[in-house]
Amino acid sequence: MTAPHGTPAAGTARRSVSAPRAPRTVAGTLRAYLALTKPRIIELLLITTIPTMFLAAGGFPHPLLILDTMVGGYLAAGGANTLNMYFDRDIDAKMKRTRNRPIVTGEVSPRAAVVFGVALSIASALWLGLLVNWASAVLAIAAILLYVVFYTLFLKRRTSQNIVWGGVAGCMPVLIGWSAVTGTVSWTAFLLFLVIFFWTPPHYWPLAEKFTKDYETAGVPMLPVVSSRENVAHQMIGHTVAMIASSLAIIPLGHTGWVYGVAAVASGAWFLFLVIRYALRTHRGMTGKALGPMVVFHGSITYLTLLFVALAIDPFVRF
Question: What residue spans carry the region label Disordered (predicted)?
């Protein structure tokens, strides 16, 4: 398998990746393969899946169904993340934030990473199909293809809107969680999909702002690299407003109660405040820590966690 797009930068990837290190302990090897799956990102994905299952079930789904869905979801996300690291190994070697990833350091060879990523992807489809349902399996495969092909190979190096449309893959866990319980998807699941879709840009662009030099060096046209801070901030506000609207649109469908409603309004207002404050700071010409991009980044994670925790609690607190 060749490096993505056949670009000169991709062609130098093999020279950028370190030679394999000396044999390591079994524990060290396992840690390297675990790192390929990007477990911290997967934690965020799983946070959205379980509450969605609670909402779809109107209470506790069967514990074994939750476990099977979580394992299948982890395998799918891990496979996609591993293949993403394989195709991005050239730019990962150029970026301070990613240059210690296992393929770049030589802890895992590119060929081994491909085998591992494909194996995890196939295992996820079979696991979900045989132990959950085939609707969830199809959605998981769609998520893998969206992330690896649509985002990593097609969008990431070509457009500043890469994370907007590439973020569709990160929205799939809510559909998988809903279909795991019901065997299908609904308008409620679709609105949860939209919440995460609109959440992704104001979540990721502040991180890209902090690591602008990394992306410039790697030649990745993230929006903060190719556009003004003011434009980025204005787009973040638009996405945040759409995110809040999507979260509130779930309430009239009747699946949620006051716990979710209060959390959606309060956490949405708080996060919108963070984004507007960020926009005002860009207008004043602030940069670096004074601008505070990581405050918005961490705030976005807090927002999503609060919203989905409320979603999980809501079915059990009804009057």
Answer: 1-22
Annotate 143-165 with b (16+ C-beta within 10 A) or e (fewer): bbebbbebbbbbbbbebbebbbb
Q: Could you tell me the residue ranges of all domains in the chain?
A: 30-160, 186-319
**pTM for this predicted structure:** 0.89
DSSP one-letter code for 19: P
238 burial via Cβ count (<10 Å: 0-12, 13-18, 19+): middle
**What fold does the segment set 186-319 form as a domain?**
Four Helix Bundle (Hemerythrin (Met), subunit A) (1.20.120)
Give the Cα separation of 66 and 177 in Å (integer).
9
Taking alpha carbons only, the member of 199, 193, 187 closest to residue 254 is: 187
Q: CB pairs under 8 A, 24+ apart, for 29-32?
A: 29/107, 32/102, 32/107, 32/108
| Residue 23 φ then ψ, to 5° | -50, 140
Q: Is the pLDDT of residue 6 over 50?
A: no
User: Over the chain, what is the mean pLDDT?
Assistant: 91
User: H or E element: which one contains 110?
Assistant: helix 110-131
Rounded Cα gap, residues 159 and 290, in angstroms: 28
Q: Which residue has tokens 């959205």?
A: 48
Which amino acid is residue 206, in one-letter code? P
Q: Which pLDDT score, from 0 to 100, does residue 21 have?
A: 56
In this structure, is the dihedral angle defined by the CA atoms of residues 159, 162, 164 and 169, taken in order, positive or negative? positive
CATH superfamily of 30-160: UbiA prenyltransferase (1.10.357.140)
Give the chain's end-to-end CA distance (angstroms, integer): 58
Q: Which contiguous run of DSSP H or E holds residue 186?
A: none
How far is Cα 106 from Cα 123, in angstroms, rounded to an integer? 25
